[in-house]
């Protein structure tokens, strides 16, 4: 499983990425450095030009010479800096893609219980905003930092060597305080940024929920309530983002402020040195140009430090996500079996990880391979819970659920799940074509197989009438299909898988009686020799089962065939009487 891979930590991932691309980075950073090296010749050239002007040796040839040199400086700068920036940008995008891919793989490895704890909006915000913040720091941030650091160092060296060491050192005194500001301010920006991202997650959550529930919201004319809830969350975001902007703006302005003090000192002291003849006028001109050149990198450095602080907050948030380990994993030494489909449950009790009471207690039954089991019971009786334990969607206690005599916890997860076709209660559809939705359960399924599955699910006639047929796009989560059509698409998907065990969790609730009859007939024919578990509220769907389990409040109250249970005159018999009465009335 991917969770065992130590690389699944965004900081490791970042380190590994940087080290695997070290030459690519070296090349792009080097081209930025060379571009700046070329650029710092600019003030020096102008300084020399001024000195030549002052000594009255200016000729046409000299003017042409300097103009040409300046042009070369400009062109080289653009080419080299452009290349470095482009490469860094590309590398940053590669990292962004890699980080998102890992995040997605990591989520896929986690169990259902995890997704009950985290909301979709929050997860999306991590995948979009946090990952983007890290990428921005990695590409743009790194460009600017390299640029600024080099420009600063090169300028200092140039002024130190070509103008005056004394003047350079004195002018730099205010910049010594820079690291102190970074240390003091950094955590504040990180904190504010984390809180702003949390508020964004919150809003993404509400947006996702409101859009998913748009039919309900509109049908109940509750738009104003939703709008009000949205406004309140946006207010929180704005407040928190304002705090980030405040902190960032103050932080960013401190650095140029220190630069301005340096500038004033330089002008004052440099002017004095020029007047007293200790440096040339050309040197002084070059020095002021150099200082003008470092004001921008200083401003940029403020921006980059800021960006790094935010990226660090986002990395920390991502780290929390990645640190979540899958709680349902493969056993160390899985039993290798070719699953036939016999199911045995001997469950003293089962409680959900976050549940405060047992969802199931004392449930035991055995189904030979090829049998059909019907499960009935009131809503909340534990029917879904029971069937969820088979494919280990939730983990049953050790020694309580067996397939072909093997504890499901000892089987390889992929082997177990490949042997089970499961139509969950909501029969989830992806926002793609009907063909892909049905074909999802079998890689490289042929058109004939898909059509046959749709026919068995009594869905083919309707698909044929759609203008696009199998290529009809079903909209997000199948919005453009009716409830019954969605259910039948999900059933067709399960038929196509043709697994040794089929579980239908109340999957016929939205189809009419006649369609139900046809689907049940298809199940009886297709599933001969294969185990089928049907949860149903309408008892006609399970009447034919080899064994019917009646659950109530998490316990198994009755068990037997339809005839046996009728003869027993218990809950099942009264449920049958009730439903038959309702049907007669209808
Ligand atoms: N993931 C979960 N975490 C905690 N409790 C849960 C979870 N899923 C279900 N429950 C609880 O377990 C009990 C049984 O729920 P279950 O969904 O199995 O009932 P059901 O018989 O399938 O009901 P229905 O016919 O309405 O689908 C309920 O009390 C429910 O609140």
TrEMBL record:
InterPro entries: AAA+_ATPase, ABC1_TM_dom, ABC1_TM_sf, ABC_transporter-like_ATP-bd, ABC_transporter-like_CS, P-loop_NTPase, Type_1_exporter. SMART domains: AAA. Residues 345-578 form the ABC transporter domain. It is a multi-pass membrane protein. PROSITE patterns: ABC_TM1F, ABC_TRANSPORTER_1, ABC_TRANSPORTER_2. It comes from the Bacteria. It is found in: Cell membrane. Keywords: ATP-binding, Cell membrane, Membrane, Nucleotide-binding, Transmembrane, Transmembrane helix, Transport. The chain crosses the membrane at residues 23-42, 62-83, 142-161, 167-185, 249-269, 275-295. GO terms for cellular component: plasma membrane. Residues 26-310 form the ABC transmembrane type-1 domain. Gene3D superfamilies: ABC transporter type 1, transmembrane domain, P-loop containing nucleotide triphosphate hydrolases. GO terms for molecular function: ABC-type oligopeptide transporter activity; ATP binding; ATP hydrolysis activity. It holds the Pfam family ABC_tran. This is ABC transporter.
């Amino acid at each position: 499983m991917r969770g065992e891979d130590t690389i699944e930590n965004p900081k490791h991932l970042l380190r590994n990425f940087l080290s695997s691309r070290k030459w690519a980075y070296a090349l792009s950073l080097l081209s930025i450095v060379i571009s700046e090296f070329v650029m710092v010749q600019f003030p020096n050239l102008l300084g020399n030009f001024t000195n030549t002007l002052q000594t009255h040796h200016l000729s046409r040839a000299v003017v042409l010479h300097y103009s040409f040199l300046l042009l070369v400086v400009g062109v080289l700068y653009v080419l080299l800096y452009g290349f470095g920036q482009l490469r860094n940008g590309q590398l940053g995008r590669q990292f962004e893609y890699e980080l998102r891919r890992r995040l997605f793989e990591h989520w896929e490895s986690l169990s259902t219980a995890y997704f009950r704890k985290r909301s979709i909006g929050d997860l999306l915000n991590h995948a979009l905003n946090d990952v983007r913040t890290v990428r921005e720091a990695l590409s743009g941030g790194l460009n600017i930092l390299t640029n600024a650091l080099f420009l600063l160092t090169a300028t200092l060296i140039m002024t130190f060597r070509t103008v005056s060491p004394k003047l350079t050192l004195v002018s730099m005194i205010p910049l010594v305080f820079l690291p102190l500001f970074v240390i003091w301010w950094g955590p504040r920006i990180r904190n504010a940024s984390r809180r702003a991202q949390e508020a964004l997650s919150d809003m993404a959550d509400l947006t996702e929920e409101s859009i998913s529930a748009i039919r309900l919201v509109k049908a109940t004319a509750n738009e104003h309530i939703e709008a009000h809830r949205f406004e309140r969350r946006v207010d929180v975001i704005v407040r928190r983002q304002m705090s980030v902007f405040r902190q960032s703006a103050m932080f960013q302005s401190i650095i140029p402020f220190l630069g301005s003090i340096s500038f004033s000192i330089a002008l004052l002291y440099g002017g004095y040195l020029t007047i007293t003849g200790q440096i040339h006028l050309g040197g002084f001109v070059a020095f002021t140009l150099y200082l003008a050149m470092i004001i921008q990198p200083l401003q940029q450095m403020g921006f980059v430090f800021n960006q790094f602080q935010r990226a660090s907050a986002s990395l920390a948030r991502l780290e929390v996500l990645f640190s979540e380990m899958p709680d349902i994993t493969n056993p160390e030494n899985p039993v290798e079996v070719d699953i036939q489909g016999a199911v045995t449950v001997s469950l003293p009790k089962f409680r959900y990880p976050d549940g405060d009471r047992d969802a199931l207690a004392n449930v035991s039954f055995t189904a030979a391979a090829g049998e059909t089991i019907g499960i009935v019971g009131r809503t909340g009786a534990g029917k879904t819970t029971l069937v969820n334990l088979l494919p280990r969607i939730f983990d049953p206690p050790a020694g309580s659920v067996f397939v072909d005599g093997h504890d499901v916890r000892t089987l390889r997860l992929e082997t177990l799940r490949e042997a089970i076709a499961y139509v969950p209660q909501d029969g989830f559809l992806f926002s793609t074509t009907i063909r892909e939705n049905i074909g999802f359960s079998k890689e490289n399924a042929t058109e004939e197989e898909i059509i046959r599955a749709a026919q068995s699910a009594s869905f083919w006639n309707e698909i044929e009438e759609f203008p696009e047929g199998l290529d009809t796009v079903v909209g997000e989560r199948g919005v453009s299909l009716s409830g019954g059509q969605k259910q039948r698409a999900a059933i067709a998907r399960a038929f196509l898988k043709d697994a040794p065990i089929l579980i239908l969790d109340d999957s016929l609730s939205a189809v009419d009686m006649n369609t139900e009859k046809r689907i049940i007939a298809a199940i009886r024919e297709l599933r001969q020799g294969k185990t089928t578990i049907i949860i149903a509220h309408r008892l006609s769907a399970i009447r034919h089962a080899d064994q019917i389990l009646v659950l109530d409040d998490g316990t198994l109250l009755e068990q037997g065939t339809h005839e046996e249970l009728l003869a027993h005159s218990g809950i099942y018999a009264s449920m049958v009487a009730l439903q038959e009465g309702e049907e007669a009335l209808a």
